[in-house]
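Weekly sync notes, structure subgroup
Attendees: PM, AL, DS (notes)

Item 1: joint prediction request from the bench team. They want all two components modeled as one assembly rather than separately. Inputs as received:
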Amino acid sequence: MKKNIPVSELRVGMYVILPLSWSEHNFLRSKFRLASAEQIDKIRAHGLREVTVDLERSDVVPGDKMAPQSVNELEYVSHSDAVVDPKDQAPPPVWNPDTLVPPELREAIHDRRLPPEQKAKAVYRHTRDMMQRMLDAPGPANIRAGKEAIRSVTDLVLTDDQTARSLLRITAHDFYTYTHSVNVGITSLMLAKALFKNSDGHDLHELGAGFFLHDLGKVMVDPAIINKPARLDETEMRRMRIHPYQGYKLLRDADALSEECRVIVMEHHELMDGGGYPKRIKGDQIHLYGRICCIADVFDALTAERSYKKAMTPFDALTLMRDKMPNHFDRALFGAFVDLFR
Amino acid sequence: MQRYLCDVCGYIYDESVGDPEGGIPPGTRLEDIPDDWVCPECGATKASFMRHE
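Output from the run, pasted for the record:
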């Protein structure tokens, strides 16, 4: 039997049927048993006054004073908490433009009282969370929302030198694409900043977006290949090589494509000697922005910890790039990149 | 009708199928495809395509 209950009387254990279409709320399904006080608060936050409750599928009924109603009450464990059918649990949140960007990211960026080291740590952590969410749900609206947030991070890197330097030091070493994206975003932008800061001819915000999103196309590659804990064989490499073009198509279809983003995403794997991909262009045929991203990309790959190889120090990575890959990178750009780490 | 392999990503262009989404009707020979066409998977140019048995 179904009954309309005021939101103030919702309790954990009630089976709710939300009136909103699935795209309007953060829960994946519109019908589920409330499993936590936080879910009740989220429903309240949507502005709903009343919610339909299916009494037969609920563990508690309206008027039951014992069940928890909000985070301000003491949590108590009813038997339904102990015996839970996973199918009835509310599924994990769905990322949409309203939930994609952690509020802590904006707070950290704009907090004037935070010392640079702490600000850098907070910005790094929350940007990484945002990238993870974006890559989990890379729909057009999310891509646009993420690009906007990246703009704020780019601003910070460009204008707050101390925090930017701290960010550069943090670029941490694990093997997740979202971490790699943030690392390459930061290091490429630092190089671009060093080269272009005093010139008007470059849109550094679009550059920032392109650098952070350079590997967006990896969402189209089988995760088993991306996460493989060993070197890729030829078949796997072939699948991986679709990611520049796939990233370009995602940005284009999200209406988030600028010229800067296009060249960075398409050309970040091209090499000066023509041995890169997908178009095998060489030297000056490769756009400057693509050449910048390429250096940062290889550098992060070498300095990242992987399950099948240890992380290299920046010094060792730069030495290897100079000695073992002499014809891959633009010499002048590589020199400027090395200077970032002095 | 011939088949060609993109040696960047392994995509197969089959002349009898074409690439309709890319504006190439079935039955189009590789040499007749415009030079600005790219591999629908990876964006490689025509030059990367090899005969494939």
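Discussion: Chain B has a mean pLDDT of 96.
Action: AL to compare against the crosslinking data before next sync.
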